[in-house]
Write a structure and sequence with these properties.
The protein has 356 residues and is an alpha+beta fold. Helix content is 38%, strand content 18%. Strands 3-2-1-5-8 form a 5-stranded mixed β-sheet. It binds dinuclear copper ion. Dinuclear copper ion (CUA) binds next to loops.
Length: 356
């Protein structure tokens, strides 16, 4: 790929697609700037007002006007289609087997919560060459942040109260810097961290709570690297060593919440219909509401149902006796409960997955 220096390394395949589109856009802009400005200068000199030179009157030229409308239209359609393809690759098309990490932003730091129940601050540990899906939100009552990993060309707003999702598959091991890229207050500039992409052996060590050497920064050198290492290096090493495994997995924690918070009284986990719908096999499935709307039961749907159950009443459950739970569960608990509901794959889902 073209490298004009100062550009971040493209550490994912999607980043490379992004770069190709980017350079195409730059190319189109440069080309048409020349097409417009070079003749403009030439004509300004050639046809300038001077004694003995009489201008001809030209009103229009149909062929020329159709040509310069049609060609840009085609180019814009190409940009639209190409942009859509890259956007899908970059944001939407997370492989179904992707490892999932929950991201929580707050003023001014980041918490990452893994499937095994562990959490880390400001450092996101992932294996190399494995797809990772991020489910991101900001702390209750916090402001909007934005997660930006330049080496991955990945940028997504992190908003309190809803989940935004994105994904990546890093192909270069090492520490890739990320930023908060939405001005969020006095501590915005310290809201930085790193995606730590580990080789398979290191990833296994980290998963089992063993110490690993922090890999080097990728694509950062000189003064900035020393600054970052000074601010993060010690904390990073510390976190790697103390990564402990005594937590419950996300799913187990969710199961416990399901029982302890009393959800189980109305929502079974085995398909038995209670006062409310069973949780079995609902995740990712469509549901019809009493007002006729069809929604997909994804992370945002479940969160909405917990915080304001009367806003979206499922057909057949119009009695709507569930009290709203806004703020009753911490963000990390909500993640666990959603992970638990997601884990309850019913027969309908299993069937559909084998058919595909
Ligand atoms: Cu968070 Cu800027």
């Amino acid at each position: 790929m073209m490298d004009f220096g100062g550009y971040p390394i493209a550490a994912t395949a999607a980043a490379e697609s992004w770069d190709q589109l980017h350079w195409f856009l730059i190319g189109v802009c440069v080309f048409f700037s020349l097409v417009v400005f070079v003749p403009m200068v030439v004509f300004a000199i050639k046809y300038r007002a001077r004694p003995g030179h009489k201008p001809t009157y030209i009103s229009h030229n149909n062929a020329l006007e159709i040509f310069w409308t049609a060609v840009p239209t085609v180019i814009l359609m190409v940009i639209f289609a190409w942009g859509w393809i890259v956007y899908k690759e970059l944001v939407i098309n997370a492989p179904p087997n992707a490892m999932e990490v929950k991201v929580m932003a707050r003023s001014w730091g980041w918490t990452f919560q893994y499937e095994d129940g562990r959490t880390t601050n400001d450092l996101l540990f992932v294996p190399v060459n494995k797809p990772v899906r991020l489910v991101m939100t900001a702390a209750e009552g916090d402001v909007i942040h934005s997660f930006f990993v330049p080496n991955f060309r990945l940028k997504k707003d992190v908003v309190p109260g809803i989940y935004n999702t994105t994904w990546f598959e890093a192909r270069i091991p090492g520490r890739h810097q990320f930023f908060c890229t939405e001005y969020c207050g006095a501590g915005h500039s310290i809201m930085i961290g790193a995606v730590v992409v580990l080789e398979e052996e290191d990833w296994q060590l980290w998963r089992w709570g063993k110490a690993i050497d922090m890999p080097d920064w990728v694509g950062i050198g000189g003064k900035r690297e020393r600054m970052l290492t000074a601010s993060q290096g010690r904390e990073a090493a510390f976190q790697v060593q103390t990564a402990h495994l005594d937590q419950k997995s996300l799913i187990d924690r969710g199961q416990e919440l399901h029982r302890r918070q009393g959800c189980v009284a109305c929502h079974s986990s085995d398909g038995t219909m209670g006062i409310g719908p069973s949780f079995l096999g609902i995740f990712g499935e469509e549901v019809e509401l009493s007002d006729g709307r069809i929604l997909v039961r994804d992370e945002n749907y479940i969160r909405g149902q917990i915080e304001n159950p009367r806003a979206q009443i499922v057909r057949g459950f119009e009695h709507a006796v569930m009290p709203p739970y806004p703020g009753r569960l911490s963000e990390l608990d909500l993640n666990a409960l959603i992970a638990y509901i997601k884990s309850l794959q019913g027969s309908t889902t299993a069937q559909r997955m084998t058919e595909e």
